[in-house]
Queue: 2 jobs
Job 1
Amino acid sequence: MKDIAQVVEDTAAKLLKIAATILPSEVKEALITGEKETEGSLGKSQLIAINENVGLAEKFSKPMCQDTGLVSFFVKIGDKFPIRSEVKTALIKATKRATEDVPLRPNAVDMFEGNTKNNVGIRGFVPWFYFDLVEGEDCEIIALPKGGGSSNVGKMKMIPPGKGIKGVKEFVVEALAAAGPLACPPYAVGVGVGGGEDMCMNLAKKALLRPLFEYHEDSKISEIEKELLTTLNKLEIGAMGLGEGPSVLDVHMEFAARHPASLPVGVVISCWALRHAGATIDEEGNVEWHPH
Amino acid sequence: MVLYECLWVYEVEEFGPLTVTIDAQGGNLTAESKKNIEANKEKILKEL
Ligand code: SF4
């Protein structure tokens, strides 16, 4: 019988390494297409540099950017998976280990005590966990170490409910225009609508985990995703914000019910370095790596 | 007073080509891009 907590730790450490060093294949393809289709030499040169950098990172197993993100994990624990709170302990250990092994940049800074140097906060909360309880005997782990630069341009707003879906679209346009060249475009955009002021941001982040070009199963929502993708590219932010080439690679939205008096909208933006990787562990400790 | 966020000294070979975004003659590609984005935003919001 395998030591399940150890399997969780080993898997999570490897997921952090994959996320930091290898872009998901659809992101790689989108950036290569972007390079081919960009005519202006200013934008093209940026995409050539990004793609060359992505290739070198993968070849040498080194982080694709000096920032390796603030670590968070999305975890679904099945009813019959043998461990529960130990999963949390294993993920914290994995974060410390990956910080040494990959190495990841130490990105957990305590307001009063300074950098913890191991990506784990001394007051809890970092790495951040999104836990979900599900049926079955598996545990799914997705690592999302999100870059600070692109997190800085995230936005949430409680818009007047009367503004409806048009208000949602306006806010997304405003958020992306404000991000402009600041956060290493081309961007992937996650939008969360509804719930409370925290939930809309959580949903927006979760939306970033859906592979590029995989649209919402509800066609009412997928149509808005595609419309926003076209609209946001009209901002002409361009590769690295220089006005040429793609501004936004894709837009994904998640909706939750809302309070009648509120319409929360969260926008989470990722730079081109859309770092995430996932795996599913069964009750015996066999690991299935998600396509990457 | 100049406040540096961080300062690195590099020794490099075959560095570049590079894009100069802010030059010594007042040229600023980032500022130009931001202006263009703002103008596009106004247009888009009217058409939404
Ligand atoms: S925004 Fe992304 S690509 Fe830019 S420095 Fe941060 S992590 Fe790196």
Job 2
Amino acid sequence: MADIQIERVRKDFGAVRALDEITLHVADGEFVALLGPSGCGKTTLLRIVAGLETRTAGRIVIGGRDLSDVPTRNRGLAMVFQNYAVFPHMTVYENIAFGLRMQGADTTRVQAQVKRAAELLHIEMLLDRYPAKLSGGQRQRVAVARALAVEPPVLLMDEPLSNLDALLRLEMRADLKAILQEAGTTTIYVTHDQTEAMGLADRIAVMHGGRIVQFDTPMAVYGRPQSTFVGGFVGSPPMNFIKVDVTGGQAKLGALSLPAPVASGSVLAGIRAEDFALVERDKGLPFNVLVVEPLGSHALMTGRVADQIIRVVAPPDTAHAAGTEIGLAPVQQRIVWMDAGSGTALGRSA
Amino acid sequence: MTRARTSLLPYLLLAPSLLFLAALFLVPLLQTIGLSLTENGELSPANYQRMVGDLNFVPSLRNTFVLVLVVVPAQVVFALAMATMLQKLRLGRDIVLWIWTIPLGVSDLAAGLVWLAILQDRGYLNSALMALGVIDGPTPWLTYETPVALFFSVVAAEVWRATAIVLVILVAGLQLIPREYAEAAEVFGARPWTIFRRITLPLLRPSLQTALILRTVLAFEVFAVVYAIGGRNFPVLVGEAFVWQTDNQNTGVAAAYAMLVVVISLASTVFYLRALRTPPEQQP
Ligand SMILES: Nc1ncnc2c1ncn2[C@@H]1O[C@H](COP(=O)(O)OP(=O)(O)O)[C@@H](O)[C@H]1O
Ligand SMILES: [Mg+2]
């Protein structure tokens, strides 16, 4: 059992509060992504879990053991660093064997584990080489193999794919998911790339300004964001937030009238780009098409609703061109209503 | 036209420094070689024969080598320890480094005189020892009869004076090593000493090489400190060159000594370049 409990962890760098009362429970064998924009405190949190950074307050408990004051080397973790930190003066073999050697493993075990990890990551043919002779993707694999060779109960990864080109990233993402699922390793994976988090994680902890603003499954984070920040950060294109007026509990969207969670006032209707049906102009919310981008699998339309710019996904063969005006009918049960002032989600409508 | 000009430009810019070096280094070197190999205008090994036959030759050769073999490793060990401690400081690192490098600003003769003031018969050391009751009266440490004390006095002065240059090079070298390597080693269970031995030291090799070459070459040229403290009680190679040039008015033998120092320095440089080479594939 190696569940991770991060309890009320706070971190101040001088006057800067990098982490504000972070509480997060990662179940045994679970893959959790820490997702957030640059500077929100992801790396700091990961380093505190590893013991590489001191914390101002809070506890780190792994597998029921309070590790808050245990030195890094005794925490029994493995980590993949953003810049890989593959030792340049050791061969790939020695790099992968490093953790095992530190544990005092005997030669047979070292050989067997290095072989296994290298095979898993398809780098058996690189074992005698030095890292300087490897491509970025190969170094990345060495870093992961080094971490997996010790069969760690807990694996920490800090943006491990961010230095790779797009195609390689896609490939490594699928490989990583398969490998870690098979190993059953409890994993915390830091990334600022929402596609990566969506694709890999069992659950995503969305961070913003040193706090966790939502912790849920990828589909829930995507479909039911708890704030305009989450809706805007997760998903590409970001969620549309259309300002609408409510009277008598009904929100008025052009020709449509939808039940809203408040009686009156102004609210934001959070609607994903793909959650619109295209209808005739006077049968829905009037949408002034400004740009149409054919993206192959679909067409992305950017246009104006009243004085707001929103994005709408249309079928790839859409006939609507820039300059035309059409109507939009949102899929009612997928609308996320947000408070116009605070930007936090309101109770569900229907 | 422009192409020709841009390809010439670097050489033109380098020319003054090359001319300067040729005039002030290459020409004197060739002259020294010439001087050492001629007698009365004829090619002759006489100067070298006189050097080797001299009573002080073997002691000065031995003293110089023993001094280098003791001083340089001691300096590297001290500098490594000091640089590692500096790395751990969160506050005031620059001030500590600054204080440690003060001896660099002191000329070697002045450094020798400082240590002479400490170690002579009525110096600070003896005053302190007398006050503590360890010795009864002024005791000489720097004479022909106390070679061990004299030797270690010279070692102390040299270590005090010139460890800082090694320190500065190693501090710069340590700062070039990304912190993640040590952190990765730590995550995988390495203890501080293991990290130092298996990660830091190998990655510091280029800086160690530079520091060792610089320090060893200069250590073979040791002179002013030794003569300030011990005079000719502790003969060294460059000191003998000085004596032959000034006291004996024999430039030929002095040149032979100078050439010997040049050859030893070159040999040690070649040794370090090979022994501490970082193969290209292992460079970060
Ligand atoms: N060693 C440090 N000293 C001072 N401030 C730091 C340090 N490390 C991180 N910070 C600050 O803490 C915040 C979070 O940083 P970080 O955890 O690196 O963010 P992320 O990994 O999400 O990009 C940032 O505002 C950053 O400037
Ligand atoms: Mg980061």
